[in-house]
Design goal:
Helix content is 53%, strand content 14%. It is an alpha/beta fold and 331 residues long. The strands form 2 sheets. A 4-stranded parallel beta sheet has the order 2-1-3-4. Strands 6-5-7-8 form a 4-stranded parallel beta sheet, with helices on both faces. Helix 4 packs parallel to helix 6 and helix 7 packs across helix 13. It is globular, with a radius of gyration of 19 Å. The N and C termini lie far apart (54 Å). The structure holds iron/sulfur cluster.
Length: 331
Amino acid sequence: MARIGITTTVPVEIILAAGHVPVDLNNIFITSPEAGHMVETAEEAGYPRNICGWIKGLYAVMVNKELNDSFGGIDKVIAVTQGDCSNTHALMETYQLAGIETIPFAYPFDRDYDLLKLQMEKLMNVLGTNWEAVYNVKRELDKLRLRVAEIDRRTWEDNTVSGFHNHLYQVSCSDFNSDTAAFTADVEQFLQQTAEAAEYADELRLGFIGVPPIFTDLYPYMETMGARVVYNEVQRQFAMPYFTDDIVEQYRMYTYPYGVFNRIKDVEAEIERRNLDGLIHYVQSFCFRQIEDMILREKLDIPILTIEGDKPGKVDARTKLRIEGFLEMLR
Ligand code: SF4
């Protein structure tokens, strides 16, 4: 049993079917009290200042032996060479320089079914599993994904779940916190807690689009201002609430790796369904995805505030002021 590091959502069913443990390095980075220090570690090693903080964190998590040991170590990393991040190639090269084994995986940009299936088969061969085992895992995970989708539904329909918990449970579906049984129990306990919870009475309903925030207190901050996030776009995609029997189709329906226009259709549908007042578009400093802001603004017919984060930590004063002004405008 190996511990397989991932830097974004990949077909986790394959890792589990092969008897390995998936570990999302983003979650290790951002939940660590040492997250700020990790960014500095990467810069000290030579990472340029004008490279995204997530990439630096992903580098430090793997390369710093003490940090790596503190969460049980990683044997290999799956490198998504297409469909995730323009910096992944160089990140993987610096991993290789440090002697870390990487396994390539690519989402075909045009969502081609056969190419995606081929990529999944290659990953299955490298990790040592087959379709039968993968489908057995998928059927089990689908039940869990259904329960996480219930948390999402309670967020926007019953109004009993906070924006942060909506974010947390869905973003955790990239690796199910490396322990599917414990995560299932956690989800069930949370659902029990919220079954009788009082409804939120926020004035404003927001959507959060873009990569998950590097800020640690964004959701509670907005709730103190009378606005709750009832839609987390990319996090919901990580949770894959599609419920198709075909696992290749499941990873085709996942919008994040296939360009902004597929994402826009999903966002438009959820703006309508969840009755949103406005969107927060989060962009990461030095991320190529910032360019997509101009497309999102042109295509989406709803007020949008674009905010930018750089290093891990609390929301800065300037961003707080801009959020405050946006909420006032929505009111
Ligand atoms: S925020 Fe952008 S640059 Fe940073 S890891 Fe994600 S996709 Fe890459």
